[in-house]
Amino acid sequence: xxxxxxxxxxxxxxxxxxxxxxxxxxxxxxxxxxxxxxxxxxxxxxxxxxxxxxxxxxxxxxxxxxxxxxxxxxxxxxxxxxxxxxxxxxxxxxxxxxxxxxxxxxxxxxxxxxxxxxxxxxxxxxxxxxxxxxxxxxxxxxxxxxxxxxxxxxxxxxxxxxxxxxxxxxxxxxxxxxxxxxxxxxxxxxxxxxxxxxxxxxxxxxxxxxxxxxxxxxxxxxxxxxxxxxxxxxxxxxxxxxxxxxxxxxxxxxxxxxxxxxxxxxxxxxxxxxxxxxxxxxxxxxxxxxxxxx
Length: 294
Known about the structure:
The protein is 81% helix and 0% strand. It has 16 helices and no strands. The longest helix has 38 residues, at 256-293.
């Protein structure tokens, strides 16, 4: 009786393998297409950026990075990231905790709003801030009367950056918190822990790798944002130009070495982000697997 069962099982197993396994030429062709795509659209642009940045030697490269306007653009980029990323951490953790741990009216609507920056062009979001805070905008007259400057200044750049980056932390934490459930928090509360202790010693350690992953992506987007910032900055040289805006100005002035020198800093940030993202993804994936196994 055992032999017929074995025979009936083996052909079924072989048919499944044949259905999901491509031939060697097909695999090689798919790999060639993937590597060609990455080479043309990822590696080649990076090579060109660094080649053009050092086209006139290391002296011209360091001179371009040492100019007053470039230093100002770097400082402003770091300042905007230093403000927007912590605020996004607070929002991301709060939103993820509320969505994953509680049931309330408007939960689906809040989840939809978090995804809004992914579906709205950054340029449109910048224009919305112009309509709100501009001289002829909804709040423009009141802001001018009280001496408050939003547009064409650091506050406007920070607001635009926060808008385009706030989904990253929340979107990394929501599925992770939902997967973990409420069991650990309920156990901590039953043992006498208060809400803050439960969050600090139970919830936060359980999502630390997902949080770091979201912060990494948020920071990279904050430093590289162009569209929304371009609309609200005013392009004031030395005052409201971030690094991406400074690259555009230098390139439009035919200062290729300066433009590509600053662009190489952004490209270097992208490479560092990619490496850290890969490392965190490995650890983050292990955390998810361990959680699911538990």
